[in-house]
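Holo prediction — adenosine monophosphate.
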Amino acid sequence: MEIIRKPKRMTAWVNSQAALGKTICLVPTMGYLHDGHLALVRKGCEWADHVVVSLFVNPIQFGPGEDLDSYPRSFERDAALSEKVGASVLFSPEAIDLYPKGFQTTVTVKGLTSGLCGGSRPHHFDGVTTVVAKLFHIVKPHSAVFGQKDLQQLAVIKKMVSDLNWDIDILGHPIVREADGLAMSSRNSYLNEEERLKALCLHDAIQFARKKVRAGSQNAASLEEDIECRIRGCNGVVIDYVSIVNAETLQKCSVINNDSVLALAVKIGRTRLIDNGFLKAEA
Ligand code: AMP
């Protein structure tokens, strides 16, 4: 596996592979890799001759007071894991190379970014779409894999690619969970033992909601209320949002159907966690 830092060298590598007729899949990450990230890389390996894993803690997707400075980092370990699961390149640029002095262009997807995480993290998705657009231009992938854990991000990236006529297949990968149901996340490393237990309220809420739907609940608003009430029962968990939405449009559902997803964000101590699940899926 090659480790590449400079965007120009990345593009040169890609061009040399394109000349050989090779296909490329990109897996964008912010590093501190876990099995969720590695599942994305494995999926990419099934789709393309080469997987490029990008590792970049993107400063412009963090708001003031968020965890940019404390975001966990482990470059050597990430490189070893990426190589182990079959990546051809780990692309890890410096911020100064992606955002040189005088940088003034951003990519914005309107509408889809207004609610859910976009509601509580203004400008977050502008940062995401801008960096992903740059990565797409540098790596020129045929496909890219994103996790369904970031439900809104996946919808937003699909929209950007479609709206900008980009010939890139955007592949979603199901959420990878710990044995007890907690969705894997680099930010789980912030949790102490007590908070880690409280974090199970997210998966519990999804299971609870699915059970209610199986028992006949159809009214999304009243189910949201029940879920909020259940989460509020967990001391020290602060709800950001509990929202039942259509998986693609992210519009609120009034009646629960096969495309309805429960999307959740909470804060436990200083850690913000998200999770989601289709309501008509198997528990
Ligand atoms: P991050 O490093 O958190 O920006 O995530 C990089 C990619 O990995 C994104 O597409 C995430 O949606 C995906 N991802 C993160 N955690 C998981 C998980 N538990 N299961 C599946 N995909 C994940």
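READOUT: The CA atoms of residues 198 and 234 lie 7 Å apart.
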